[in-house]
Amino acid sequence: MANKKVKVKTPLVEMDGDEMTRIMWRMVKDKLLLPHLDMALEYYDLGLKHRDETDDRVTLEAAEAIKKYGVGVKCATITPNKERVKEYNLRQEWKSPNGTIRGVLDGTVFRAPILVKNIQPSVRTWKKPIHIGRHAYGDIYRNAEMRVEDPGRAELVFTPEGGGSPVRATIHDFKGAGILQGIHNTDRSIQSFARACFTYAYDMKLHLWFGTKDTISKTYDAQFRRVFDEEYKKDWERKFKDAALEYHFALIDDTVARIMRSEGGLLWACKNYDGDVMSDMLGAAYGSLAMITSVLVSPNGWYEFEASHGTVQKHYSKYLKGEKTSTNSMALIFAWAGALRKRGELDSTPDVVEFASYLERAAVETVQKGVMTGDLIRVAEASPKNRQVQTEEFIDAIAGELKGLVVQRIVL
Ligand code: NAP
Ligand code: MG
User: Fold this and answer.
1) What is the pLDDT at residue 300?
2) What does the alpha-carbon distance between residue 8 and residue 38 come to, in Å, rounded to a whole number?
3) Which end of the chain is more exposed for a tag (fewer CB within 10 A), N or C?
4) Could you tell me the distance, in angstroms and rounded to a whole number, from the CA of residue 276 to the centre of ligand 2?
5) 0.85 exceeded by pTM
6) CA of 275 to the centre of ligand 2 (A)
């Protein structure tokens, strides 16, 4: 391995992005990956300008390429709003690339913290990572809602497509002004969410915890519980027992309390809203947005790895003015490592899996030696070793560590 580059058998789908993360992406490739790997990249430029030039076709092409090859790695991208349309002189306010890709691959988003010894999570008992699996379909994110000003009856009405009489249920008889909301989910989506969670937990050797409010919501939340139970009984009970893993269901409030007392080492499956709220709580508790990894796992066996943070626009404007930046590339590096590990597993190329571990280890050891970007220095344990470095210096330090590991071929 010391003299020879590691060969990655199947092409990896690479999706470039925007702003500060695009700058770091280039550095990570040039300094950490290309010196050690002989790999073919299916490159898609999802930078906003190129999405605009291609009428966003490039995003769909990238998603199709992930379907073809199985594994993709994505840089952060701008989701345009009115200001961005002006700034980039866009033809249209293009949709979120993540949304588009999720639409094509139909998946569940898994997030996990990157742990280092000198940054303690704010919850003392957490010794191992807590992962979150967020159902990314339905509930309040696809709702219909209404403000009512006057007294009247609100009803749920279901009209069967094939004829037959509508089914009705009274929601509330309003005596005055109020608010109303209708939400839905589908068995199919919940099943694919459950399957993705069991698969991920099993692959990562994690216990799986799930919580809903099925004592109150006896049809809606109860259906989530039922689908998970059925999936477990049907395909996972034996495998989980053999691997000494547990699947545990509890009420959502009980689950939250158990999470706070747990030592981690588990996947927390969350309904859409719970996952939205709880992944931000986890991010804050683990110290920095740049210490959270993210992977979209599709029920069809396709994977897309990314950082969970955005393009770090504020740092980019400083960079453009020629000012020094101290932006953290950990999550981007872990996205590449995750993609390479999965590629290596699918291709049965242990060298590639091993390189992915070296890459992660080099990044973690750099921080543990006290070499950190600004976001980490703020939350790390105080030490005379601690030294704040700039964006590129940080990647250079990791490159140095990595070279050492590769040369020594340390057995992990
Ligand atoms: P952001 O890029 O995540 O940054 C928010 C703040 O978090 C930064 O200003 C910075 O704080 C801190 N931060 C995030 N990542 C960091 C890193 N790697 N190193 C150091 N500090 C980091 O979110 P945003 O500014 O709200 O969004 C910017 C653009 O990203 C938007 O156009 C949005 O559409 C896009 N976005 C993309 C994705 C994605 O592609 N997955 C996700 C979210 C947002 P300080 O300024 O205090 O240092
Ligand atoms: Mg959120």
Assistant:
1) 84
2) 6
3) C
4) 4
5) yes
6) 8
